[in-house]
Automatic annotation (TrEMBL):
It comes from Stentor coeruleus. This is Uncharacterized protein. GO terms for cellular component: endomembrane system. GO terms for molecular function: GTP binding; GTPase activity. Keywords: GTP-binding, Lipoprotein, Membrane, Nucleotide-binding. It is found in: Endomembrane system. The keyword Nucleotide-binding applies. Gene3D superfamilies: P-loop containing nucleotide triphosphate hydrolases.
Length: 198
């Protein structure tokens, strides 16, 4: 069996309303391309992308889920076992931002312990902005999450968003492993007769 070509493998999911740019973000990050005529995702799509974060090779399995209500029963199955979730809204659509709490509730039904980052996409459309950066930041901070604004069109901060998520996942994994190591080094007390001495 060949040696793994990565240090970490994480499953990530992109969620949010239809049309907020989830597929375009994934396309920009994975292939460094952008398409104005991208068709709405039907069900799910996914890509693998490997990146280096703080000297560690991280392989991301990224699932792009459809935002339409009619696909919700299909897409929710992909939330299970996800290490990280990117909740994406369109900065030019207040409704898509207002729906983020609903997406959070939906995700938490299946994967409450996953790390979460909130993405304000389409920052390039400055003349049509309905959700300013301060509003997005405050919302994320109140929920102890990272917030970052991106533009799939220009590519601005797209890679950074995925790096922030990867860094958080590595940190979380390290803490979990350290706790596991501490637990495994605790020696059980000796039994004396029928009772255990504490």
């Amino acid at each position: 069996m060949s040696r793994r070509d990565y240090d970490y493998l994480f499953k990530m999911v992109l969620v949010g309303d239809s049309g907020v740019g989830k597929s375009c973000l994934l396309l920009r990050f994975a292939d460094d391309t952008f398409s104005e005529s991208y068709i709405s995702t039907i069900g799910v799509d996914f890509r693998f992308k490997t990146l280096t974060v703080d000297g560690k090779i991280v392989k991301l399995q990224i699932w792009d889920t459809a935002g339409q209500e009619r696909f919700r029963t299909i897409t929710s199955a992909y939330y299970r076992g996800s290490d990280g979730v990117m909740l994406v809204f369109d900065k030019t659509s207040r409704d898509s931002f207002d729906h983020i709490p609903d997406w959070l509730d939906e995700i938490n039904k299946y994967s409450e312990s996953s790390s979460k980052v909130i993405i304000g996409n389409k920052q390039d459309s400055s003349e049509h902005i309905q959700v300013d950066e301060e509003t997005g930041k405050k919302f994320a901070e109140n929920r102890h999450m990272h917030y970052i604004e991106t533009s799939a069109l220009s590519g601005n901060q797209v890679s950074l968003a995925f790096e922030i998520m990867a860094r958080e996942l590595i940190s979380k994994k390290s803490v979990t492993e350290q706790k596991g190591n501490k637990l495994s080094t605790v020696k059980p007390k000796k039994n004396i007769g029928c009772c255990q001495q504490l």
